[in-house]
Amino acid sequence: LVFPFALRSPETKWGLGLATAFFFKANQKEENLRTSDVSLVGLATQREQLLLVLNSTVFSSMEKRIFRMQVSYSYYPDKTWGIGNHSSESAKENYDYKQFYFNPQLLHRIAGNLYIGASYEYQEVHDFSYVANGIFDQQSIPGMNGGRTSGFGLLLTWDTRNNAYSPSHGFFSEINYTSFDRDIGSQFSFSTFSLDVRKFLPWRTNSVLALQGIIKVSDGNIPIRNMGMLGGTEIMRGYYKGRYMDKGMSSIQAEWRQYLIWRLGLAGFVAAGEVSPDIKHFSLPGIHYTYGCGL
After folding, report:
1. Helix, strand or coil for residue 4?
2. Comparing C-alpha atoms, which of 208, 249, 210 is closest to residue 232?
């Protein structure tokens, strides 16, 4: 599959790109084996951003193992409002950086739909520039001079989804703990723990109710590009990605999806979330909300 695309968002303004994807099954004789894929996406935007992303998910025969990988390079003029759940809109500043990211993961089935696995995460940030004496200097935000992170992680995954890309029923839960240390090449020492839980419920004819909850908590000297962020295309849509960021992040969302005709469908969602320096400081009064719909 090869196709051009256009988009517009607060992060990018207008953008033009090209996407390619190859879908296959590791064993064509296994009808219940989920589809594997390798995809490559390139994007250039009106804000002079450049993004190249290679993604892959491969299910082995009998789904005894799952291999996932993401590799990306980006030049991304971005915005920040500083660290915290109550940052002011007037604090907004621009900053630029170039980034290389590499994250392979290998999961092995230990029983039923339960998998255990290992991951390696590498990130190189350079050519980082920001407004002098602005919010980066005022808050002494880690990573404001770029740098390298390198960490090994452990994964525990439970996955009963009928489809990894557009599931209509099933459950997904994943725990991820990653430790970044100078002994393995990281210039920052910290650890991250995340929990991602999703449930897909068939509802009436050609409808699906999708539910998701995410918690991410980090400890140590966390650089800006590794902090928990609200917003973007995956969680808390409607907010600029990084509008609120801190060491900890939690969010929940629900989306109703209705198939219409041909390849068209309708979706509506609601979401809530917040960021915090640690899990003890999450509070109901600090929650941010968002909602939306699309075709």
Report:
1. strand
2. 249
Distance CA 165, CA 59 (A): 13
Give pLDDT tens digits for 45-103: 998 899 999 999 999 999 999 999 999 999 988 999 999 999 999 999 999 999 999 99
The contacts found for 3-12 with CB under 8 angstroms, 24 or more apart, are: 7/43, 9/233, 10/240, 11/78, 11/79, 11/232, 11/240, 11/241, 12/43, 12/45, 12/46, 12/47, 12/49
Burial class (CB in 10 A: 0-12, 13-18, 19+), 178: buried
Q: Residue 164 has which token pair?
A: 């990894």
Tell which phi-psi region holds residue 29, choosing left (phi > 0), alpha (psi between -120 and 50) or beta: alpha
Please indicate, yes or no, whether the overall pTM of this predicted structure exceeds 0.85. yes
What Rg, from alpha-carbon coordinates, does the chain have? Answer: 20
Q: Do the beta carbons of residue 259 and residue 245 sit within 8 Å?
A: no
**Beta pairing partners, 209:** 201, 256
Distance CA 72, CA 283 (A): 35
> What are the φ/ψ torsions at residue 158 (nearest 5 degrees)?
-120, 120
Long-range contacts (CB closer than 8 Å, 24 or more residues apart) made by 47-54: 47/12, 47/13, 47/77, 48/75, 48/77, 49/12, 49/15, 49/74, 49/75, 49/76, 49/77, 50/74, 50/75, 50/76, 51/17, 51/76
Those residues with Cβ within 8 angstroms of residue 243's Cβ, 6 or more apart along the chain or in another chain: 81, 87, 230, 231
Q: Are 116 and 156 a contacting pair, CB within 8 Å? A: yes
The CA distances from residue 96 to 121, 194, 229, in Å, are 22, 27, 17
